Amino acid sequence: MLQLHRSTLIVSCLALVACVFLYSTLGVAKPFHMWKWTDIVSEGGTAVMAGSWVLFTLSSRPGGLVTRLLAGGLAMIMVGSFADCMDEFFAVSKAARWDHWLEMLVPLGMLVLTCGMYYWRHEQFRLNEHLQKRERLFRDHRAFDRITQLANADYLRRQIRHEQAQRPGRPCALVLLDIDSFHLINREFGQREGDRVLQAVGHMLLLNLRNDDLLCRYAGDRFALLLPDTGVAEAEAMARHLAAMVGQMRHHAKDGRVSISVRHACASADTDADMLLAELARALATSAQSAPSTSPGRLDQSGQSAQAAQAAQPTQAMHSAQATQPTQTTQPAQTTQPAQVTQSAQAMQPARSAQMPRSAQPVSVSVAGASA
Questions:
Q1: pTM of the model as a whole
Q2: Percentage of the residues of the chain whose pLDDT score is greater than 70
Q3: In CATH, which of 3.30.70.270, 3.90.1150.10, 3.80.10.10, 1.10.390.10 is domain 140-297+364-369?
């Protein structure tokens, strides 16, 4: 970090060297018995402490207005105190004024440092406003997910129960987001790149949430949003906005760009947490089965995805096979096979409807998908 502030360090060192040069050339060295050790220790100690604060500030902060004001004010205090300490070693003529101007750097540095503290205060307000989105997680450090640094599913369940107990009757919505074809991303780009995709999606979602909203990693490639004081209609609009933001991401892997899209399901968080999460997960699974399968393709130079080119190859092979191989189908097989399929499908359909539990019906659950 100090390498980013080399110019500030060089200027401060040159100012100290200039003070030594001025006092040694324009002043007269005092004999040893005239040295006042109390002033030397106090003024020299102030210069040393101010210099150490300059190093601490520059080594812990990036460049910017606040850093320049804090480091500049401390550097001026350091130079002024060092010049005041040099008066104990060299005698300067009373008619000279330059030594007084050097000593004036101490109050001037205090003024600059105060301005830096003022802007630093506003900077902390903005940072605290952003950190309030994660404030709930700081209460229980064990609830962090290792990859995304978000809350896990257990913490989400506790917070749902907490909202229901602390705010009965108040609207509260739960949104579940699922990354489309995430297993294909891991398969094509590797698990490490899949972890980077999870981190990128988590950051994008977090930046587009309100201060009171809670973002969690539910399981695998799914994220959960707990939205206090939010109805289902407002949660649906927010989920669509978040899906659009994720779809506009430009995530680049080592082998090419990764297209990312999410689908979502939302409901009112007024029932049991486990049942609510299971219902939303079931709704997402149903929408994933009904939607056409998508693949996180890399874009080639012609603008077409590599998966589209691969999908065209089996079609061409099938046409060539039909043209070369003779038709060896028998009439009884053609007549008996549809009947068997029809009878089995009719027999299975009532059984499936009878086995479906009542909790699986998507009551008051809104499901939608988003394309990249």
A1: 0.47
A2: 73
A3: 3.30.70.270
